[in-house]
């Protein structure tokens, strides 16, 4: 049975904001003292997930894959279909977030929703989430570094991008993002607000320019054009692979869940942040996809380019305008990595608070000056840099390591949703809930996650070589093997799932703020 959280009436603290008192009471009822500053308003919470999803970064990074795996038909209609499925996942997650608004998010709720083996459910969910987020920070930084070098090459044609330079630029980006996360949560909130307007303004500029400047556009019927350049003879298989373009973009919306302990009225604003981020990303992303698709001049040339969206900009707008718009794309990628690192840090903070990581005592400490988990920030930075380092020798090795990013995240999303389904009517919802639609929405969400995870682990190009092989199953297998060996060797004797620090009145006395 799920553990019901009865929220006691908040204590009176002078002129304190009643919203903060309610949030504190909820946190105390879950057994945790308040250590983090609540500076995130509703918009800030939405902003972090919207920034991590980051339609500009996701679409510009994966557009070339979609051009060759299904073409315009899958890019456009696949975007619509997958967006709807992801909204089911987000709504199901949001319902859980409302019931358990903590930084632990997925692993915490998994431990609370499991009838038996709470520690094991929580353990596996937490490590899948951790590895997925670290991989996401590394992959986003690497993508930003790649586009930075593309810009430099356009500006100075004599510049030659190399693997070593990509790794060095990636490392610099991740370290700078770590520095930004080291300071107050207020700074992070401000940067995330800026990122939303950067994304929306950038979207308007890119789309408007693609509508106005090119001499010609494709007809509307071009959106039904189908292409299968995957090397596989089955068009159906090629089209299914093309769905991954959208799935790659829609990751990281658990960021709103992880920021719950720093969000005002978290039981409502965190779930709203999740669903709004997905909904707005779906709409704005479709507009950008259509603008790019209808601006393609020479399809084969674009599909074969190293950065197809950049080639579209150059062909339709000229080199000067293309370079200016590329700066918008690079900025979006930098904001995406920053928000992803923030979410990763909060997951580490919470996971360590419950004793699930080596050196947990270090990683869940909070700076008395900034009220942020500074040590957790730099653990996230170091882990991300460790994943980037193999790219110094081989891009294939780097791809193999971070390939678990999306699969790990979505499987972590599935676990608490699945456990909520198993509870049925025993599940105690929070203020934001789906009512009688909770179970069918959750069932669709879990089904889609399982189907899409299979797609992520299938071969994505033929012929299959060392460079084209999909290493996601191997990477996922290694993560699960290490987690399993660790679990049976030591963790099962010391980790029982989310820890309660005492009764609400006892943990209230432990508040650091």
How would you describe the overall organization of this protein?
This protein has helices spanning 18-29, 42-53, 55-68, 71-99, 105-113, 118-155, 163-182, 185-212, 235-242, 244-249, 255-258, 266-293, 299-303, 308-317, 319-353, 360-363, 374-388, 395-402, 404-423, 438-457, 472-494, 504-508; strands at residues 69-70, 227-228. It is mainly α and 513 residues long. The protein has one domain: Up-down Bundle (Amino acid/polyamine transporter I), CATH 1.20.1740.10. A two-stranded antiparallel ribbon has the order 1-2. Helix 2 (42-53) runs parallel beside helix 12, helix 3 crosses helix 12 (266-293) and helix 3 (55-68) packs across helix 15. 53% of the residues are buried. Residues 1-16 have low confidence and may be disordered. It is a multi-pass membrane protein. InterPro entries: AA/rel_permease1 (IPR002293), Amino_acid_permease_CS (IPR004840). Keywords: Membrane, Transmembrane, Transmembrane helix, Transport.
In short, what is this structure?
By secondary structure, this protein is mainly α.
Report helical residue fraction: 55-70%
CATH architecture: Up-down Bundle
| Total domain modules | 1
* CATH structural class: Mainly Alpha
Mean residue pLDDT: 89
Poorly predicted parts = 1-16
Enumerate how many helices there are, as a single number: 22
User: What is the terminal-to-terminal distance?
Assistant: 33 Å
According to CATH, the homologous superfamily is Amino acid/polyamine transporter I
Spatial order of the strands forming the largest sheet? 1-2
């Amino acid at each position: 049975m799920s553990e019901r959280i009865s929220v006691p009436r908040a204590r009176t603290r002078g002129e304190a904001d009643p919203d903060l008192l309610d949030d504190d009471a909820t946190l105390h009822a879950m057994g945790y003292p308040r250590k983090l500053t609540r500076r995130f308003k509703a918009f800030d919470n939405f902003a972090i997930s919207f920034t991590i999803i980051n339609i500009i970064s996701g679409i510009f990074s994966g557009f070339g894959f979609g051009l060759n795996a299904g073409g315009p038909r899958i890019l456009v209609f696949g975007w619509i279909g997958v967006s709807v499925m992801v909204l089911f996942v987000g709504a199901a997650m949001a319902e859980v977030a409302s019931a358990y608004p903590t930084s632990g998010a997925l692993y915490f709720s998994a431990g609370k929703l499991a009838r038996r083996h709470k520690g094991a459910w929580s353990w596996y969910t937490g490590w899948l989430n951790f590895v997925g987020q670290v991989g996401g920070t590394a992959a986003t930084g690497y993508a930003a570094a790649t586009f930075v070098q593309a810009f430099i090459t356009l500006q100075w044609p004599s510049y030659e991008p190399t693997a070593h330079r990509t790794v060095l630029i990636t490392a610099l980006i991740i370290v700078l993002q770590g520095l930004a996360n080291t300071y107050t949560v207020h700074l992070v909130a401000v940067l995330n607000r800026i990122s939303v307007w950067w994304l929306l303004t950038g979207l308007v500029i890119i789309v408007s320019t693609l509508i106005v400047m090119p001499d010609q556009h494709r007809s509307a019927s071009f959106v039904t054009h189908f292409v299968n350049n995957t090397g596989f003879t089955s068009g159906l298989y090629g089209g299914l692979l093309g769905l991954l373009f959208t799935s790659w973009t829609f990751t990281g919306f658990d960021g709103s869940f992880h920021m719950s302990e720093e969000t005002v009225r978290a039981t409502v604003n965190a779930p709203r942040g999740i669903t709004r981020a997905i909904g707005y990303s779906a709409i704005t992303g479709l507009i950008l996809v259509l603008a790019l698709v209808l601006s393609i001049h020479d399809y084969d040339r674009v599909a074969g380019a190293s950065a197809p969206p950049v080639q579209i900009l150059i062909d339709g707008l000229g080199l000067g305008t293309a370079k200016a718009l590329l700066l918008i794309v690079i900025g979006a990628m930098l904001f995406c990595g920053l928000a992803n690192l923030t979410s990763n840090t909060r997951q580490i903070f919470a996971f360590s608070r419950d004793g699930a990581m080596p050196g947990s005592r270090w990683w869940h400490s909070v700076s008395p000056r900034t009220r942020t988990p500074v040590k957790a920030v730099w653990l996230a930075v170091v882990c991300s840099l460790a994943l980037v380092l193999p790219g110094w020798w081989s891009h294939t090795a780097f791809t193999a390591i971070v390939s678990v990013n999306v699969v790990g995240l979505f499987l972590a999303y599935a676990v608490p949703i699945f456990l909520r389904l198993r509870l049925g009517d025993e599940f105690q919802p929070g203020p934001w809930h789906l009512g009688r639609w909770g179970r069918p929405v959750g069932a669709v969400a879990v089904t889609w996650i399982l189907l899409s995870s299979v797609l992520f682990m299938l071969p994505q190009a033929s012929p299959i070589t060392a460079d084209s092989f999909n290493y996601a199953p191997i990477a996922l297998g290694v993560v699960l093997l290490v987690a399993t060996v660790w679990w049976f060797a030591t963790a099962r004797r010391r980790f029982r799932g989310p820890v309660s620090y005492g009764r609400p009145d006892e943990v209230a006395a432990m508040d650091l703020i």
